[in-house]
Design brief:
The protein has ten helices and 27 strands. It is α/β, with parallel strands linked by helices and 433 residues long. It has a six-stranded mixed beta sheet with strand order 5-2-1-11-23-22. It has a four-stranded parallel beta sheet with strand order 15-14-13-19. Strands 6-7-10 form a three-stranded antiparallel beta sheet, with no helix packed on it. The longest helix has 20 residues.
Length: 433
Amino acid sequence: MSSASTLHRIVIVGGGAGGLELATQLGNSLGKQQRAQIILVDHQLTHLWKPLWHEVAAGTLMTSENELSYIVHAYLHHFEFQYGSFLKLDKQHKQITLAAVTNQQQLVLPERTLAYDTLVLALGSVSHDFDIPGVEEHCYTLDSYQDCQHFQQQFLQQLMRLQEQQQQELTIAIVGGGATGVELAAELQFACEQALNYKHKPKPVSYNIAISLIESAPRLLAGLPEKISLATQQELARRNIQVVLDEQVSEITPEAIHTKSGRVIPALLKVWAAGIKASPFLTTLGLATNQRNQLLVKQTLQTTLDENIFAFGDCAACPQPNSDRLVPPRAQAAHQQAHLLANSLTRQLQGKALLPYYYRDYGSLITLSRHNTFGNLMGKLLGDIMLEGKLARLVYLSLYRKHQAALYGWWRVALLSLAQFLTKPLRPRLKLH
């Protein structure tokens, strides 16, 4: 049995869906058998599946039931967790530096270095403001769990002001008609509906609330089939959400969204969800990047300038064979890449060749809060079929269960699902604190 100091060290930076799934799979195999030392690094102490963040922002998700503690999970799955932010990379000495951790100006953990034999970067993405004036100053983004919580608090305060007649209207504008923008708009509409009627049961009271969704393309969800886009737009219209298409934002002011055509859309709360890019920090590492700051990788997910450093998920520009397009920044791609890397890194320790990654599109699903769910499923047996309603909702929920199963196993997921089902009548539909 090898000692920890002589084991091959695999350091994974980023505890999002992909990074955490990879650490779990490697921990359950290589870590448990003490064939390698697995270390996961993240600047947070807990994990929450990113496709649920819009529900955190609206206050419709009970986060305590869905958060995962990195420290506890690492202990249960035979890997090590290091708390801190990635600060520097030293390729020559094969080590990374983690920034000091402070809390209210008190030092929690000092700056540290971590040696690696294999480094895997799974750092996700951040909002892309396209250098539009006023975005950084006047818009909320959903780049982190904390961003979502901060917006939820501001949203709740505005609802309370409206409820107590301290203001006459609440205007919300979301820039970006992709999945995040569409799902957030529907979730906020549902939250408004719930919150403002709590005080006036059984007779609802009407409030002046306007939610706008602004998209520069001619239709919503431009990357998905047109029939899904049309069905989504019609459902949003039924929910009194204003959809503004083919309008490019030129400026954000404290009071409104301004477009290049001269249109002015008033908004007290403004959310920017109009695109993503990798963190600019990645351009400082001495590795090749593209215009969106993504690390250039081969099909094996190795970075082009260092075969000992891998990258995957939103932060990686991974080529698709026989195409000039890159693998899209989607949760299913990160899940597939994590599974492939778990196999590849195990093979590498056995002296075998790394596996190439081939993206497989299994379709997309969009949930409009409790109102409706649309999507398409793709596969060799199914072809391309469109789903809507309860069946689509079940498939959408199954994606989260699949992520949980990669972390806990199906038996525990079944118990968690049963517990949530039994306690559902006891839980409020909206977080009002």
